């Protein structure tokens, strides 16, 4: 019985012809776009609001826009190093902030903005 020898190289199959991919829009069209106009601040955020007596101990009693109130609260937090060391998203409240946060000893930075807005008129 004779054994059949396999040929050393099998004939290579041709790759199936793929349709050509669509080309991206020419760079010329992208260059013609107008630059974005600078953003205008939302008037609701820029309206001066009066802080409650509790919040006034942290940010002062003068009317301020929401953005400035948040900025001053963050300055207070950083000055007293009240961010949690393990989880920087959490704020550890001291006595003044505990009153603002509704008696909570620790709140997340996202919850903090909601609690602060409750103290603005």
UniProtKB/TrEMBL annotation:
Range of residues in the leader sequence: none
Bias type Low complexity, positions: 1-29
Region (Disordered): 1-43
Domain DM2: 44-121
InterPro entries with a match to the protein in the record: SWIB_domain (IPR019835), SWIB_MDM2_dom_sf (IPR036885), SWIB_MDM2_domain (IPR003121)
SUPFAM superfamilies: SWIB/MDM2 domain
Protein name according to UniProt: DM2 domain-containing protein
Source organism per UniProt: Massilia polaris
């Amino acid at each position: 019985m004779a054994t059949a020898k396999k040929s050393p190289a099998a004939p290579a199959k041709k790759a199936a012809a793929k349709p050509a991919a669509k080309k991206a829009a020419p760079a010329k069209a992208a260059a013609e776009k107008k630059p974005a106009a600078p953003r205008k601040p939302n008037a609701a955020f820029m309206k001066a609001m009066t802080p409650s007596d509790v919040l006034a101990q942290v940010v002062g009693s003068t009317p301020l826009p929401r953005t400035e109130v948040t900025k001053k609260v963050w300055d207070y937090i950083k000055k007293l190093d009240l961010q949690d060391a393990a989880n920087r998203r959490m704020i550890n409240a001291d006595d003044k902030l505990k009153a603002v946060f509704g008696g909570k000893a620790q709140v997340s930075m996202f919850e903090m903005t909601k609690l602060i807005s409750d103290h603005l008129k």
